[in-house]
Amino acid sequence: MAATAQESSKGDTKKENIFAFKGFNVSADIFGCAYRLIGNSISGEASIDANLGHWLFPVVEVGYGSTNVTNSDNGIHYTAAAPYYRVGVNYNFLHKWGAKPADSYPYLAARFAWTNVKYNVDAPPLIDPIWGSEVPLTLDGVRGTALWAEVGVGVNVKIWKNFRMGWSVRYKLRIKDSKANNSNISYIPGYGNNTGSTFGGTYNLIYEIPINRK
After folding, report:
1. Residue 145 CB-density burial (10 A; 0-12 exposed, 13-18 middle, 19+ buried)
2. In order of start, what are the domains of the chain with their CATH numbers?
3. Which of 199, 185, 196, 182 has its CA nearest to residue 82?
4. Contact at 8 Å (CB) between 49 and 61?
């Protein structure tokens, strides 16, 4: 009976350790800042995730994105800026139960994201075909909402002590975006150009905050 109780206790301990809280990872994405070098948009974001058993990492990401672009073909000037938010999980698919956690690991990522964006549109005036007068075309402070999902793969690598770095590639699928009567959202902060599904990436500098337990 004593042996049975001991085995039951071990089983309970193993079950508890599956989701045992191991600490936090706090990170900042610097990849979005490089967009300014290749385009007219820029974004930056920070995230925090909880380490559950070294295999499941629920994560929250908060960022801010903006764009300022003029279409050379039609002269339309478009600006937009807004914070954006993501919630989801990272899954370490190479984790082995009972084995020592690896310093570096690949993971699968899944996110649900949204933003409430405010944008402005300025365009060359239209010519009234009847009277020949100019009709200004300016939209200021138009608001819209966008929802999308992301799936992808990434790597988290230990550099030195609690300092880590990581990168990921994600496929982004727009779920819904609101449209005003006379315009729609051209650029979605955190998503990119609103032209359909797209790909994105992150490059994170990470600081690990472990929780040591006896």
Report:
1. middle
2. 18-210 (2.40.160.20)
3. 185
4. no
DSSP label at residue 128: P
What pairs with residue 203 in β-bridges?
167
DSSP 117: E
| DSSP state for residue 123 in the 8-state scheme | E
Mean pLDDT of 134-156: 88
- Mean pLDDT for 2-26 is 65
Q: What is the mean pLDDT of the chain?
A: 84
Helix/strand/coil percentages in the chain, nearest 5: 10, 65, 25
Concatenating the DSSP letter of every residue in 2-38 gives: HHHHHHHHHHHHHHHHTT-EEEEEEEEE-TGGGHHHH
Q: C-alpha distances in angstroms, 65 versus 37, 96, 112, 193?
A: 15, 38, 17, 12
Tokens 């984790």 appear where? Answer: 95
Distances (CA, A) of 171 to 95, 191, 203: 24, 10, 15
Segment 54-94, tens digit of pLDDT = 999 999 999 999 998 887 777 788 999 999 999 999 999 99
First-to-last CA distance in the chain?
A: 28
Using CB atoms within 10 Å of the CB of residue 113, give its burial: 0 to 12 exposed, 13 to 18 middle, 19+ buried. Answer: buried
